[in-house]
Amino acid sequence: MPSSPTHQVPQPSAPQPSAPQPSAPVEFAGAARSIPPNVFAVTDRKVEESIAAGNDVIDLAKGNPDAYPEEFIRDAARQAIDDPANARYTPFDGKPAYLRAAADWYRRMHGVTLDWHTQLFAVEGAVDALAGLYSIILDPGDAVAFADPYYPSYHCMARMRRAEEILLPATRDHGFLPDLDAVGGEVWDRVKMLVLNYPNNPTGAQAPLEFLARSVELARRHRFVIVHDYAYCGLGVGTAGAGMAGVVDDGHGAAVGRAGQQHSILEVPGACDVAVEVCSLSKMYAMAGWRAGFVAGNAPVVDHLKRYHYQMGSMITGNVQDAGVVALQSDQSCVARLAQRYAERRRIVAQGLRSAGLDVFDSAGGIYVWALVPQAWRGDDGSGTTGGERFADVMLDRARVAMLPGSCFGSVGGDYVRLSLLKPRNMLEEAVRRICAAVAQTDDVGCAVRDLPCADAVR
């Protein structure tokens, strides 16, 4: 591997303004000038234009959950609204009951003991936490490492901090996990922060405990901080990927395994010496719009994040924290049901895409399908676009199905597309039917209809 595996991420062109924009009275700060264009905005604009033209578009590009919080969670929120205390500012660190519930959740689900006073902090979702962690850990010129493919905010936050980005290729051959041992010691010596994300967005990959343990070992040896973005916790299904992970109290003090669920990095002995974990209630409990989560782990990092947040952030609304308490204290069967729903949707979409000639990654978790486009679409065709970009554009134009090209998530995903599972089953079935039909009928890009498994079904 090169000694300096840095990478400049290609950016889509920003939307052109329809009218002259007023000039600012000052020059904006370097951080503001360095904000990259939103990689999702290009697809959003194309979808909006197609819908405005009268097309019936099934939008599988977005990651906005279609589920609704369970009734017991909504009941708790409704009751909490009538508590006069919730009309006031909540404690800076988070309500004690919320933090204790998070600590108890870690004990029951992962066998991890945390001091809720010093090792937990309430935040308004994962991105809120990540922005704060980037700010307290990275100075300009410091190095942050993360896998490619990656969630785009990791790159954008690094740019805004003027940090060096060290991208760790995570390829299909390694289950979309980076090969940590392929990185030289001199590179790890430059790293100040390593960002991990499992279950992964966009690939759905899960990381076995051995991988997390190796990360902790490297962090201890080379003295860097690990930030584990655990936003999709609980949404693993089956035995692929992580295998047995976590523990659940059976009600009698005994621990039982949770098959198919991603490990918390804090399960690794000694992890709290070098790591923090960012948890969100958005995906686990379908509370995306409620904005609640927490950061757990290394006490000095948590302490400095608190200090930063006291000045730069705001507290979670009181009734949302109260609802979060009952969600975290529940038996988690609502999370398991949600995971099974996504697993069934994943099966439907994967089967349909495979029949259209796409190579679908057998992910073990998350809320997306990550698929390699058919062979005829892959590589550089001389247009300056990736195979995933061309495929996504044609599917929006001909199938009226929106998806994200893998290039939104880095260079490794150039020939991939990401499809969201956050639509009802009947819409997903219709989407894959349209995709199959469009691919079978698209012979002007080299796709031979007769060679496609779905050809007979769509004629």
TrEMBL record:
Q: Cross-referenced CDD domains, in alphabetical order?
A: AAT_like
- The Pro residues compositionally biased stretches are 12-23
* Region (Disordered), start-end ranges: 1-30
EC annotation from Swiss-Prot or TrEMBL = 2.6.1.-
Lineage: superkingdom: Bacteria
- Aminotransferase class I/classII large domain location is 56-435
A Pfam family the protein falls into = Aminotran_1_2
Q: Which coenzymes or cofactors are required?
A: pyridoxal 5'-phosphate
- Residues in coiled coil: none
| Keywords per UniProt | Aminotransferase, Transferase
Task: Answer yes or no on keyword Flavoprotein.
Answer: no
Q: Known PROSITE patterns for this protein? A: AA_TRANSFER_CLASS_1
Which molecular function terms from Gene Ontology are attached? pyridoxal phosphate binding; transaminase activity
Read off the InterPro entries from this record. Aminotransferase_I/II_large (IPR004839), LL-DAP_aminotransferase (IPR050881), NHTrfase_class1_PyrdxlP-BS (IPR004838), PyrdxlP-dep_Trfase (IPR015424), PyrdxlP-dep_Trfase_major (IPR015421), PyrdxlP-dep_Trfase_small (IPR015422)
Q: What family does the database annotate?
A: Belongs to the class-I pyridoxal-phosphate-dependent aminotransferase family.
Write down what this protein is called.
Aminotransferase
Q: Which organism is it from?
A: Bifidobacterium jacchi
